[in-house]
Write a structure and sequence with these properties.
Blueprint: E1 2-18, E2 24-44, E3 48-52, H1 64-75, E4 82-88, H2 99-114, H3 121-131, H4 135-140, E5 143-148, E6 152-155, E7 163-168, H5 175-181, H6 193-200, E8 213-214, H7 216-223, H8 225-236, E9 241-244, E10 251-255, H9 262-268, E11 274-278, E12 285-289
Parallel strand pairs: 1-8, 3-4
Antiparallel strand pairs: 1-2, 1-12, 2-4, 2-5, 5-6, 7-10, 7-11, 9-10
Helix pairs in contact: 1-2, 1-3, 2-3, 7-8
Length: about 300
């Protein structure tokens, strides 16, 4: 079985306050994009055996794929067959692109299909929430407003069409570090994700790029000035807008669907270890070969 796990970007991200439970209340707008990891599944005798093309990514119990296997197994009270999973990693790690969450969501869907579990939508979401707060969105895909810790989703039924040039500087930003650096209330209030939702449901699509916002940019750019430089490069190169996604470290430059971003990407490629041109997508995971007996051929 072969499945694509698509990345996400944040078109808007505000951190409202720290909750009594120690987590932060978020208001964000998620968008699935075409940049993806690729996962291969085959049944085995027992447990979850994981391999990854990137040797820097751990393959033990801390990996979100392994946590997804455990979450589905818990739903079935341990009555889940063994599986070998190989991950071809293409989404940069620690970039704010939700690569680990996308892999976990794809794993939940693959296990459901491979073992004919027929999990309900609520059961799938319950397993996703056990793994991480971005996983429910990656399970759903498309465009959605998220609140709470990121797990309360309101789908937005408007198909966005743009191009994004994603640049990753070659290092990640710790989410914990990013939250600790925030000073709540130190920045002016920006239009909320609710305003985004209103605009997306109407005819004011030309306002979108004026509403991009990420509360983390101020503190993360201060610590990692190269990210601010990347944003400036993208704007100088002709992008309509640019924004860091998540808590970093990837920065996205946005352009109309008919724009040619290839020359800009070529001019920047020598200075940055990862670049990708991508577009919005409506689904978070895509089955390429859903035959549980299929074997990896790469």
């Amino acid at each position: 079985m072969r499945i694509l796990a698509r990345a996400k970007i944040n078109l808007y991200l505000d951190v409202l306050y720290k909750r009594p439970d120690g987590y932060h209340e978020l208001d964000t707008l998620f968008q699935t994009v075409g940049l993806c990891d690729e996962l291969f599944f085959e049944q085995s005798d027992s447990g979850c055996i994981l391999s990854v093309s990137d040797p820097t990514i751990p393959v033990g119990a801390e990996n979100l794929i392994a946590k997804a296997y455990d979450a589905v197994s818990n739903l079935r009270r341990g009555a889940l067959g063994g599986v070998r999973i190989h991950l071809e990693k293409r989404i940069p790690h620690g970039a704010g692109l939700g690569g680990g969450s996308a892999d976990a969501a794809a794993t939940i869907l693959a296990l459901d299909r491979m073992f004919h579990l027929a999990l309900s939508k609520e059961e799938l979401c319950r397993a996703a929430r056990q793994v991480g707060m971005d996983v429910p969105f990656c399970l759903m895909g498309g465009t959605a407003r998220a609140s709470g810790r990121g797990e309360i989703l309101t789908p937005i039924n408007r198909r966005l069409d743009f191009q994004a040039l994603i640049i990753h500087p070659g290092f990640g930003v710790s989410t914990k570090e990013a939250y600790e650096a925030l000073s709540m209330g130190s920045e002016p209030k920006e239009p909320s994700a609710a305003n985004w939702a209103y605009v997306l449901c109407g005819d004011k699509v030309d306002e979108l790029w004026q509403m991009l916002y990420n509360r983390f940019e101020g503190v993360i750019f201060k610590k990692y000035p190269i990210l601010s430089d990347i944003k400036k490069e993208l704007l100088k190169g002709g992008c309509s807008a640019a924004l860091m996604t998540g808590s970093g470290s990837a920065v996205c430059g946005f352009a109309p669907p008919e724009a040619d971003l290839a020359p800009l990407a070529a001019s920047l490629r020598s200075r940055h270890p990862f670049l990708a041109i991508t577009r919005p997508e409506q689904t978070g995971a895509v089955f390429i070969n859903a035959d549980p007996s299929a074997r990896r051929t790469t």
